[in-house]
Design goal:
This protein has about 400 residues and is of the alpha/beta class. It folds into two domains: about 150 residues, Aspartate Aminotransferase, domain 1 (Alpha-Beta Complex); about 230 residues, Aspartate Aminotransferase, domain 2 (3-Layer(aba) Sandwich). It contains 13 helices and twelve strands. The longest helix has 22 residues.
Length: about 400
């Protein structure tokens, strides 16, 4: 249609949403579907957080708030960064948005000019390159393969930096791989960044608290204080507190950048939901033991899925350090055929045939920028995960 913006040609719909929609349609048609494509905890929001939302309604906190967050929530976010990350921020350095996605997008819109480059390690969260393109920038994709544990190396980062590089967009623990960068691995990257003062760091720490035994989370500005003035540290309450639908994300960084993000938000959505802000205040300030309870469940599920997938010939599945995803390789299955004669010539073909033949919905690796892989979200009941792995094993065994 000629009246639509040319900008739309630079972006594509979210593959994860598309697959979840397809799975829902098949389920509605009567198929037995096990959906492992959605990236959200299957737990209810903890009771004390839900109660805080109810209290906010009853107290009349249902009107407009400050554009980028109520003062009480900003204070709680500052306290969180001090408590968990050893980072000192003031409320003027904090932005609260409608989910982490809006915060990231605001920052890109506030800083990118045509020709500006953003380094994005692949595998990446599906929205990163499209948000950069929408904001007028150029995504520079740098592969981080199975051989490096799906982690960007210092050498690869150094090689990707040009005079036009504005941001490194960084995610740990990672969606889709669950790979987490330890202190020494981050130190290698921050040493590179110190040599390139024109490059800023946008770090997506959304899975910070979903970290497993043997892995200690850290964030770039914490590892290298010299990057403090050019780092935007993004986080939120969606994953750790099972609050995906409440839509609250936040970031802290240089005051000038936060002010620019506030200006964009004031002319787009204005304030995040007032009720959700009070629930997020309780999440960050209230009891934190709910996090450990959830992590213990996720770690059990991780081990269940990793062990089951690694028992399947043709699949190699690393054991993630965090998040609630696995990103197995199907290199050993490429070129085989289904009993119906369909050739598995890509991870997209694998995921499509798997859904059609077995009812298991996963996301193909090309959506995340690295093939041949697929992503499973193990934020699902243990029985569903066991059944899904059994179906995947039977499907793979049927290939010739």
């Amino acid at each position: 249609m000629t009246f639509l913006s040319k900008t739309l040609s630079r972006v594509k719909p979210s593959p994860t949403i598309a697959i979840s929609t397809q799975a829902a349609e098949l389920r509605a048609a009567g198929r037995d579907i096990i959906g492992l494509s959605a990236g959200e905890p299957d737990f209810d929001t903890p009771a004390h957080i839900r109660a805080a939302g109810i209290r906010a309604i009853e107290a009349g906190h249902t009107r407009y708030t400050a554009v980028d967050g109520i003062p009480e929530l900003k204070e709680a976010i500052c306290a969180k960064f001090a408590r968990d990350n050893g980072l000192s921020y003031t409320p003027r350095q904090v932005s609260v948005g409608t989910g982490g996605k809006q915060v990231l997008y605001n920052a890109l819109m506030a800083t990118l000019n045509p020709g500006d480059e953003v380094i994005i390690p692949a595998p990446y969260w599906v929205s990163y390159p499209d948000m950069v393109a929408l904001a007028g920038g150029t995504p520079v994709i740098v592969e981080a393969t199975l051989e490096t544990g799906f982690k960007l190396t210092a050498e690869a980062l150094e090689a990707a930096i040009t005079p036009r590089t504005k941001w490194l967009l960084f995610n740990s623990p990672s969606n889709p791989t669950g790979a987490g960068y330890g202190h020494s691995e981050l130190r290698a990257l921050t040493d590179v960044l110190l040599r390139h003062p024109h490059v800023h760091v946008m770090t997506d720490d959304m899975y910070e608290h979903i970290a497993y035994s043997g892995f200690h989370f850290c964030t770039p500005a914490q590892v290298e204080p010299g990057l403090y003035d050019r780092t935007l540290t993004v986080n939120g309450v969606s994953k750790a507190y099972a609050m995906t639908g409440w839509r609250i994300g936040y970031a802290a960084g240089p005051e000038a950048l936060i002010g620019a993000m506030r200006k964009i938000q004031s002319q787009s959505t204005s304030n995040p939901c007032s009720i959700s802000q009070y629930a997020a205040l309780e999440a960050l300030s209230g009891p934190q033991d709910v996090i450990a309870e959830g992590v213990a469940i996720f770690q059990r599920r991780r081990d269940l899925v990793v062990d089951a997938l690694n028992a399947i010939p043709g699949i190699t599945c690393p054991r993630p350090e965090g998040a609630f995803y696995v990103y197995p390789s199907i290199h050993g299955l490429i070129g085989r055929k289904t009993p119906q004669g369909r050739v598995i010539d890509s991870d997209e073909a694998f995921a499509s045939a798997l859904l059609e033949d077995t009812g298991v919905a996963v996301v193909f690796g090309a959506a995340f920028g690295l093939s041949p892989h697929f992503r499973i979200s193990y934020a699902a009941a243990d029985d569903a995960l066991r059944q899904a792995c059994t179906r995947i094993a039977a499907f793979c065994a049927s290939l010739s």
